[in-house]
Amino acid sequence: MSGLRLEGVANAVLAPLDLTVRPGEAVAVLGPSGAGKSTLLKIVAGLLPHRGRVLLDGGELTWLPPHRRGIGYMSQDLHLFPHLSVANNLHLPLVFRGLDRAARAARVAETLALCAIDHRASRRPASLSGGERQRAALARALVCRPRLLLLDEPFANLDHATRGALWREVDALRRRLGITALIVTHDPAEAAALADRSVRIADGTLTERTAPSCSPSMTTPCCAC
Amino acid sequence: MRVLAVLVWAPLVLIVATILGAVGALASQLPLASLAEALASDETRFAVAMSLRSSLTALALALALGVPSAWLLARRRFPGKPVVETILDLPMVTPPLVAGIGLLFLLGREAPVGGALSAMGLELLFSPAGVILAQTYIATSVIVRSARAAFGAVDPGFAANAATLGIPPFWAFLLVEVPMAGRALLAAAVLGWARALGEFGATLMVAGATRMQTETLPMAVFLNIASGRTDIAIACALILLALAFALLLAIRLLTAERDDSLREDADVRFAA
Predict the structure, then answer these.
(1) I want to staple A214 with a disulfide (CB 3.0 to 4.6 A). Which of A16, A136, A192, A200 is the partner?
(2) Residue A147 to residue A111: CA distance in whole angstroms
(3) Which of B:141-180 have CB within 8 Å of A?
(4) Looking at the predicted structure, is the pLDDT value of residue A143 above 50?
(5) pLDDT tens-digit map of B140-161
(6) Do A75 and B157 touch (CB under 8 A)?
(7) Are the beta carbons of A150 and A72 closer than 8 angstroms?
């Protein structure tokens, strides 16, 4: 197990960059809007063409299409399928993992409970609150038990109180499942709450930073980056 | 205020009254007993069956061709795309007669395409297959344009998210994008079907006007007016009007419900 390794990854927005995320580690990518943070995540997810290599646990993902990468990706807009209930949003990807009906139902129930959204299983996304939608999207990103979790400004649209509660829950959940994560945010407090260390992108260039110094329990920005 | 009311209401009343007047004048040409007799005639029943069979087949073909094409136009960029889109719109703006003449020359035995089809035993011209061809030609254009708008309204981020969840592209299209564009696609299909049902000019050129053979409802109106049998012409015209009204009402209800659901979504978004 060697985690995520990016070697010379670049495209029109990003200058060639190297980055290693150890197995089970969470790294936050900080930077201003338009710096290339989301672009980096989309490259790792296989959604954008690029130069360089993307390796996960020693295997090369560079040429794999997104649906064969085994990565969980939660975009800022969540993109929960509006025509499906929360439970069916989780069922659908499992259909393509070769699990039988009983195994799928068990996995969905377990993941919904993990993300504390099981009480909304039969609801459509449009009828959920903002925080419930974030939980549902997180549950969907985790339901296939990905080797790597990519979170793009995961809780940007929530009020401070809800964000603080979700940060603690997500951090605990990620550690419990031992998932490697790359988290894009412009909020240093969010980086401190969710990540073991952070890197910064500015003008498409990556710079390594030290471990976040803010307390994971903080709900508001605490340091300037 | 009263002047404004007259200015906006009077044109609306005039337009509606003219349309209803034309329909009423058509319906009042025949006593009810004669109308019932004409509706039950073999020729009218043939025209109804022919129209339904051919237009539904044309609709299936137009959907099979048009929906993937519309998705491609909505989702992908490629060289010459504006030219391709303009070409696809041509059948909607050219007179159907012109389209029919073009198809006639393309598929005639003297032409390379028509000759090749003929060598394979496929005779499309002046046959029921020609009716389907003409209707498909017209309906496809309508469906491509409407379905393109339907797919364009679906955020491509949903398909991207589906891919990261391990859902292969074809299934993401079928299980995510098509249902999300579903109501608009259904409206596109109804519109395409309506165009196929009412198609006349291209059918006349490609399939000919042969009684009890290529006789769709519009063709029955034409043939029977020309031969002085106004009872059957009026019966077929009234059936066409009734079908058109039902289909237009269906489109209106489908798009109205879509607008309502969009409003509901917006309400939830703003409330959240």
Answers:
(1) A192
(2) 15
(3) 155, 157-158, 160-169, 171-172, 175-176, 179-180
(4) yes
(5) 999 999 999 999 999 999 999 9
(6) yes
(7) yes
Considering only the beta carbons, identify the residue of B157, B171, B272 that sits closest to A129: B272
Looking at the partner chain, which of B155, B168, B272 has a beta carbon nearest the beta carbon of A130? B272
Q: Which of B77, B164, B268 to mutate to test the interface with A (most CBs of A within 10 A)?
A: B164
Q: CA B192: distance to chain centroid?
A: 2
How far is residue B71's CA from residue B152's CA, in Å, rounded to a whole number? 8
Q: Which tokens sit at B272? A: 């959240």
The yes or no reply on domain B50-271 and CATH 1.10.3720.10 is: yes
- Looking at residue A220, its pLDDT comes to 40
Which residue, B238, B251, B170, B192, is CA-closest to B34?
B238
Look up residue B51 and give its two tokens. 């129209």
CA B52 to chain centre: 12
Cross-strand partners of A9: A17
Q: Provide the token pair at A220.
A: 């508001």
Q: Distance between CA atoms of A218 and A211, rounded to whole angstroms?
A: 15
Question: Over 90: is that where the pLDDT of B37 sits?
Answer: no
Region A164-174: mean pLDDT is 87
Check A73 against B168: CB less than 8 A apart.
no
Residue type for position A133: R
The pLDDT of residue A2 is 65
Q: What is the ipTM of this complex?
A: 0.87
Contact criterion met (CB below 8 Å) for A37 and A31 = yes
Angstrom distance (rounded) from CA A162 to CA A168: 10
- How buried is residue B249: exposed, middle or buried, by Cβ count under 10 Å (0-12/13-18/19+)? exposed
Interface of A with B (CB under 8 A): 45-47, 65-73, 75, 77, 79, 81-83, 92-93, 96-97, 126-127, 129-130, 133, 140-141, 144, 150
Phi, psi of B33 (to 5 degrees): -65, -40
Domains of chain A by residue range: 1-70+146-225
Which residue matches tokens 């020729």? B43
Q: What is the pLDDT of residue A162?
A: 82
According to the model, what pLDDT value does residue B270 have?
38
H helix runs in A156-207, sequence order: 160-177, 188-194
- Distant-in-sequence, close-in-space partners of B16: CB < 8 Å, separation ≥ 6: none
| A1-70+146-225 CATH pick, 3.30.450.20, 1.25.40.10, 1.10.4080.10, 3.40.50.300 | 3.40.50.300
Tell me whether strands A180-184 and A197-202 are parallel, antiparallel or unpaired: unpaired
- Hey, what are B203's tokens? 């059918």
pLDDT at residue A223 is higher than 50: no
